[in-house]
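Narrative progress, year one. The postdoctoral researcher (J.K.) led the effort to move from monomer predictions toward full complexes, under supervision of the PI. The following entry was the first complex the group processed end to end, covering 962 residues in total.
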Amino acid sequence: MTENLSQCMMRMVETDYVLSDYQSDIAPRWCVGCGDTAILTAMQRLCRDEQLAPEKTVCVSGIGCSSRLPHYMNAYGFHGIHGRALPIAEGVKIRRPDLNVFVTTGDGDCCSIGAAHWIHAIRYNMNMTVLLHDNQIYGLTKKQASPTSPIGQKSNTTPFGSVLLPLNPLTVTLGVANVSFVAQAVDWIPDLLYDILKKAYHHRGLSFVRILQRCPEFMDHRFDDFVRDPSKMRILTHGNGLRLSPEVSRVYKNQETHDPLDMGRALAIAAIADEIPVGILYNDPSVPCYDDLRAGERPSTPALVETVLREEFDKVTIWPDDAEPVAAE
Amino acid sequence: MGNTAGQAIIEPQPRAPQPRPAVVLKEHIIEIISDSGEGAQRCGQSFGAIAARSGNGIWTVEIIPAEIQPPHRSVAGASGNRIRLASGPVSNGGNEADLVVAFNEQVLLSRLNAGEIKPGGIILMESKWRTDRNAGIAASYARVVDDIRARGFRVYEVPMEVECLKLVPDARKGKNMFVLGMLCGIYSLDEGLAQAQVARIFGKKDQKIIDANIELLNAGRAWAEANLDLHFSVPAKRSTQTQVVMNGNAALALGVVASGMEVCAMYPITPATSTSHYLSSIFEKVGCVVHQAEDEIAACAFAIGASYAGKCAVTVTSGPGLSLKQEALGLAVMAEIPLVLIDVQRGGPSTGLPTKVEQGDLMAAIFGGHGDAPKVVMAVSTIEDCFYSVITARKIAETFNMVVMILSDASLATAQQPFARPTFSEDWLAPPVNQSAVPLDAKPYDWDPRTGIATRFIPGQPNGMHCLTGLAHDRGSHVAYDPEINEEGLLNRSRKLAALQTTLRLPPLCGGDSGEMLLLGWGGTLGAIEEAVGILRAEGLAVSSLHLKFLQPMASGIGEVMKRFTHVMSIENNWNDPLSDPLITPENRRYSHLALLLRSRYLVDIDCWGNARGQPLKPAAIVAAVRAKLGKE
Ligand SMILES: Cc1ncc(C[n+]2csc(CCOP(=O)(O)OP(=O)(O)O)c2C)c(N)n1
Ligand code: SF4
Ligand SMILES: [Mg+2]
């Protein structure tokens, strides 16, 4: 995001933003142990380390527990309506390339009510970072099955267990034309979550990060096996992807070197069922961005508006007494 | 049929021995109808343009089938154009057509069935069907011609195809220009202007094509002069003013450019789309963008996002799209984000009548969303109004941080009317996005108790960081469920409408200041209502009309005006239950939208008249309704 760097260079020299500069005056209201907290912390760390000017940072969300995140960030926040975070964020970005745009959305918000926007947002590939907080349940409305709930999931709308196979946000995203960045993170490995968000932020285009997020309130123990057994986590590493610290490497030994340009392998990894892959599945920086394609050659100025209006009126003008000017200039 | 294509020189037709003097008319309504794809629409538009350039008053109405390629020779497939041609300015499409050119008898039937042709009117029929190889078609043609002759219409059978084939190999492609020439001859329109118009239409093509079409044009005129006893003149007075001619959707698009809005987010829907088509062709030239979203919800959300980021945006739609946008509109209301929505109304509910007119969305515009969601609603009533209303709407939206809806309709969308060429003013445009630092103690919703307006903070403004939300919130934009705080928000959002209302002026009355009957209208019915008032007053009836531009809020003084009339009746192009229906009583009658609104506000027993037949209201029908109401039939 070079344009952002150039825009806030002065401030970066003058001021060092610290973590608290990104914390709003509202204390998060998530349940104890909620994975959203770790995601918020990772976001704030990212902003600090990238020294993003809070006034140039916009966090857009839909509705859900996860979508409360913008309230807890000291930045411009837009807590929108259920399912529509992505089109709102696209509108924010279309004429404001100087803004850093983040989107936080839930599995119901993104993969159910907002599914059409999700598909099209991938295709527009606008320059923004999308965090899917996937707790595999509707949290805010108190435990209904979501499109990513595992089959057999008991919930208030599926008291005898859900009957449909879940959709896989990774394979769906990878299947959309113009996909340019897909990653998966988990809330319980904060270092990797941070590293992945950082990669996502630096990607030019839409970076889609699915974060498996624990919801102790309604999906207690859902990920316990994986939290307890690091070997069930498959960490994707690559020179162009994640590079692990010795500490992480020591705990998470199940590693795979995966080239983020390898779509075939990315799809295979996305479909793995018994392990949780973590890392960058796909990253193609060459995909064009809609915001660049539609940026226009020149800024709108009053003179330009006047000229174009004159040209258009000339085409349909009836001059009195046929006094049609030969050249209107 | 002798195909004599390639014969470059037109044989001059034997001229009528003496040029017949033209019958002078004050006005005439002409329709050209064909199968879709035969070019009747282009013919009609060109005829209108030539007449406008001659200085005639015109109003053109497109006749559009709902399908792109409906079956040939079908009643449902009638496609074409109506031109009301007059000596002076024209404000509406008028009553029944005086003269109709029909490319086949089926499309003619569509207009006859709809009651759109004047009894005894002139009908010019393509005669080739009489000898069609398909006996069924030939019989159908003969039957219809006999029938309409018997009903008193003046029918002329014109060998359009035969004449065109003398000049071009494919008559389907040339017939419309032949007919254009014929009409120019019948109505004594200037040859030079007509040829210039043809050159304008085919301007981008090579000279050969222009020449071929001018030949067809001349042939049509020559044929009419030699073979028809129809020769009219509608005297024109060239305006001393420089004028532009365009349809309502084009005027809306130019209004968007002139308003300084930089983003239009839309999803295709008839009859709104041509606004976006035209805008797409020019908007990038001014550094702006038309975004075709994945659906109307996304279009509205996208526009809201752009507005939030400092670039007030517009979203353009029609009925079904308006319904989809409602939740997002509520968000814009709650979060106080400026937004302009243009609704080009069509017949509803559901998919309804996609290409036909209705004023059915007023209630949905004002009350469509859930909860208390005050929005500004204004209606356009002329083509010129389409242009300027967008500029006004953007200003109101940004001054009050409100949603402003502009209601147009399917009739205005394609109707062409000349108006004074606008003179550009920088005041039309939006100021640059404010990026200055916000005072440290300022709050994003510091509502001014006098107006309800809060200065909004735009991303990029230092110290302005806050989280905007669609949840109830306090002055700091913090989520708050406290009853007092919720009420404070409601009060201030509502107050903005009241503040705007104090700035509105009541439109002038048409007719007298007091009398027997006041007609109330809004939107695209202006011309028809005022024409009806003129006719009724000429008959000695004390009828006046008041046409509202702002429907929410409404200007002060309507109640006072109503008191000065014995009867008050709204005239609307939407549904109301007829009291003649045995089931309908004053207690269960469903009123037209404006009537219902005014009844509740003023406690006056306002009647309503109108219909939702997918056709513009006709002055004569309004006249008849008023006479009936006044017992003067
Ligand atoms: C149009 C609309 N429909 C339904 C709701 C109710 N609703 C709010 S959040 C939500 C689901 C949230 O689930 P998810 O997106 O997974 O977020 P989580 O709470 O799990 O973080 C629903 C159905 C709403 N706010 N708006
Ligand atoms: S319900 Fe679940 S997702 Fe929502 S805050 Fe509580 S733990 Fe988090
Ligand atoms: Mg969820």
